[in-house]
Amino acid sequence: MRELFRQNRSIIHQMDARVKVIFTLAFVLFLSLTPFNAWPAYILFLTLILSAALFSRLGLGFVLKRALLALPFILAAVPLIFIGPPPHITLDVFRGVQLTYSPEGLGRFASIAVKSWISVQVAILLAATTRFPDLLTALQQLRVPKLFVAIVGLMWRYLFVIVDEVTRMARARTSRSATVPGSHHHGGSVSWRAGVTGGMAGSLFLRSLERSDRVYAAMLSRGYTGELPASDTRPLSNGDRQLLALGVVLLAMLWLLGLFSGG
Amino acid sequence: MSSPIFSPLPMHIPDGFLSVLVSIVFWVISVIVIGIALRKTSRELGERDVPLMGVLAAAIFAGQMLNFSVTGGTSGHLLGAAIAVILLGPWPAVLVMTSVVSVQALLFQDGGILVLGANLFNMAIVGVFVAYAVYTLLIQLFKEQSWGVFVAGFAAAWSSIFIASLSCALQLALSGTSPANLAIPAMGAIHALIGIGEGLITAGALAFLFAARKDLLKLGEPRPAGNKGVFLGGSLIALMLVVLSPLASSHPDGLEWVAQENGFILSAKAALYNLIPDYALHGISDPALATIAAGVLGVVIVFGVAYGIARAEKRTAKQENSQR
Amino acid sequence: MNPIIEIDHLSFHYPDGKVALSEISLKVMPGEKIALVGANGAGKSTLLLHLNGIFEGSGQILIGGMEVEKKNLGLIRGQVGLVFQNPDDQLFSPTVYEDVAYGPIYQGLGEKVVREKVEQALAAVHMSDYAGRNPYHLSSGEKKRIAIATVLSMQPRILVLDEPTSGLDPRARRELIELLRELPQTMLIATHDLALAENLTPRTVVLDQGAIAADGPTAEILADESLLLAHGLS
Questions:
Q1: Contact B45 A116 (CB under 8 A)
Q2: Which other chains touch chain A, taking contact as 3+ CB pairs less than 8 Å apart?
Q3: Looking at domain C5-230, what is its CATH homologous superfamily?
Q4: Which of the residues A116, A176, C6, C52 has the least number of beta carbons within 10 Å of its own beta carbon?
Q5: In chain C, which residues have their Cβ closer than 8 Å to the Cβ of B208?
Q6: How far apart are CA A184 and CA C104, in angstroms?
Q7: Please, what's the largest Cα pairwise distance for chain B?
């Protein structure tokens, strides 16, 4: 597992994380509010995000490929094609095999897929251009409770260490998953495999609990008293405010376009 | 080992699949419940608890990568709400699962951002509450038996997954993305199976912890009264979803809130038509023409930006060269 | 006699492009015990993970004449017992017995055969009394022995060990070296512990930046102060 953040020096990387967080949220909100079949608006939303990807020097391939991840979920919307709103059209597919579908349902299905795909891209852009600690600071400045931010911060600190631990455990298990010549019955029963995986999880949690004791001791030795540090509530600069306002106005315009072009 | 983080889990809804109304309603519910969890936890917070919750959240995130092959390329893995409840109790477990699900959405795009409230509701609230209700109920029932803790763990894990998936299916149905009479049985059936994997892994983890550190599994003991609410809440959620789901399946049309949202959009549109003169809208009223125009404009902009950046880079490279 | 391990021009780089192994060629005869030494990051563990196909580099590896490739991995993993540096990565069952039984059960052997193999493996590491214990509470030395037993139960012909003496107190370390001397398997041991090499393995291979820097009798290599210094071992 690797972190998505890409170290580049671009204007998007250097932007205040709060601006990026709010813009991301606004982007997904306006895109979601855009009605079905508003293709011109979708194209321009995509244009906006691809331009931002170019500005952040991530490369189009990186963002577009990563964004395909959300696609398997599209299965949930497939039924729309066949039982969407009337009218339904029947096609002769092959020698009497008929297929009934709803054009309106097909449009909704395609719209959901495309909106989802574009939304993932803006989320990728946020994660790839913002260091996680900066993102956390931004969330705290945006009034996310500091206890929650502290938990997530510690989680982040140890995430990759523990992922390595899991990787090694999985390798150790794979190393002992062997066959004997001539035998076709190997692998044990499914419930046995599940139980072994459970043992690995139990061992992982136990090691993590003990790790948290060591982390706590280390925090104490650096003067932690149980009080979490207060957040720095520096207001957004005027430039950032204007930039954000401009971005939101642009999104609102795309949404308006969507209102009139979709249906 | 290929990284299973990148195979989206079936319960992490991406953006675009829920209507804005449903997304916002579940954001509000989740924020309220998580707010209560934060208040309860910080009131009872030992100074040791922040590192404990943080590290355990990381462990659950990483533990979701552990999998076992079932058959034909499918594999079972852990979601972790039940084990979090058993190790930490309900309110801290809500916070731990909230951290896990939020980081998955923010950093790995597993689950969307606008729909995060709904995903949190399913996995960090429903999952945790139901696991807590089932676990405490069964542990009381079987407290004489040595196997009680494993049965309770298995059942808690299975029901947390199953009920959470019903909640997920209902959200999809409310949004008009997936008809209730298909989404609910399909999601329910898939997760009734996935839940078995979750249950077996949870029971296996409990077996290990039971052998190694029995003292950690203290949830079965008399608990602070404050958690009665969670117990009732969990039972109520489970009951409601179990009763509601077949009802919704048999009346799929009654659920589509999307209709209301479309109504809102239409009235907004009508209001705007009154404000903007007709001729201004003429150009975009032809959908095919507008789509082509937008396509051309989009391509021009993206190429323009790419060209501009390439030029700017060349210029800075030249300047750096001439300075040398 | 044919070599039991034959590595031919093995190269490997990490996904980020960093070279981990370059052009490694090595022949190991049955029954040989070899120390694989090198500074941190020299590629020792990476090389070991190639021997049972966890990592796949370019070049060829033969184990007992069988190529390490996808279709053979099941059999190869029964032949090559890989013991990880941290026993906690390898021990994840409620009891020692279940941990040692993992390999034979996965191989699909019957319950009686599994029991026999587990008993033999535990006897081989002198831990027969520990079958019912929980591995988590054992000492480091005991955990190491159990970890070795978890691969011995598959009756491998080759034992591959990653830093077997790390984290052990002097007595546990001495006892472990004695145990490794008793075991008849061919051994490839990645280690920083030059005294282990001196005591146990007649042959030593020095790895530096993913390439073999020296390969010869342990006594000669350990006597070559400038060689050790050049490769971060002294």
A1: no
A2: B, C
A3: P-loop containing nucleotide triphosphate hydrolases (3.40.50.300)
A4: C6
A5: 92-94, 136
A6: 14
A7: 84
CB contact under 8 A, A196 and C102: yes
C92-126 pLDDT per residue, tens = 999 999 999 999 999 999 999 999 999 999 999 99
Helix (H, G, I), strand (E, B) or coil at C61: strand
* pLDDT, average across residues C36-51: 93
With an 8 Å Cβ cutoff, are A154 and B48 in contact?
A: no
Banded model confidence at residue A228, pLDDT cuts 50, 70, 90? low
Instruction: Collect all residues of chain C within an 8 Å Cβ-Cβ radius of residue A211.
Output: none
pLDDT tens digit string along B180-191? 888 888 888 888
pLDDT tens for residues B96-138? 999 999 999 998 888 999 999 999 999 999 999 999 999 999 9
User: What pLDDT is stored for residue C201 in this prediction?
Assistant: 95
Task: Give the contacts of C177 (CB within 8 A, at least 6 positions apart).
Answer: C165, C196, C199, C200
Q: How far apart, in Å, are the Cα atoms of C53 and each of A79, A177, B67, C210?
A: 43, 12, 19, 18
User: What is the spatial distance between Cα A20 and Cα C32, in angstroms, rounded to a whole number?
Assistant: 61
CATH of B4-261, one of 3.40.50.300, 3.60.15.10, 1.10.1760.20, 3.30.1640.10: 1.10.1760.20
* pLDDT for residue C54: 93
Whether B213 and C136 lie within 8 Å, measured CB to CB? yes
Taking alpha carbons only, the member of B134, B198, B112, B127 closest to residue B164 is: B127
* Beta-carbon separation of C74 and A179 below 8 A: yes
Q: In what order do the strands lie in the sheet with C19-28?
A: C19-28, C5-13, C58-63, C66-67
B272 band by pLDDT with thresholds 50, 70 and 90: low
| Shortest Cα–Cα distance, A210 to chain B (Å) | 9
Cβ atoms of A116 and B112 closer than 8 Å: yes
- Boundaries of every domain in chain B: 4-261, 277-323
Hey, of C45, C89, C109, which one would you mutate to test binding to chain A, going by the most A CBs within 10 A of its CB? C89
Domain ranges of chain C: 5-230
- Per-domain residue ranges of chain A: 11-131+236-261
Closest CB to C107: pick one of A186, A206, A207.
A186
State how beta strands C203-208 and C33-37 pair.
parallel
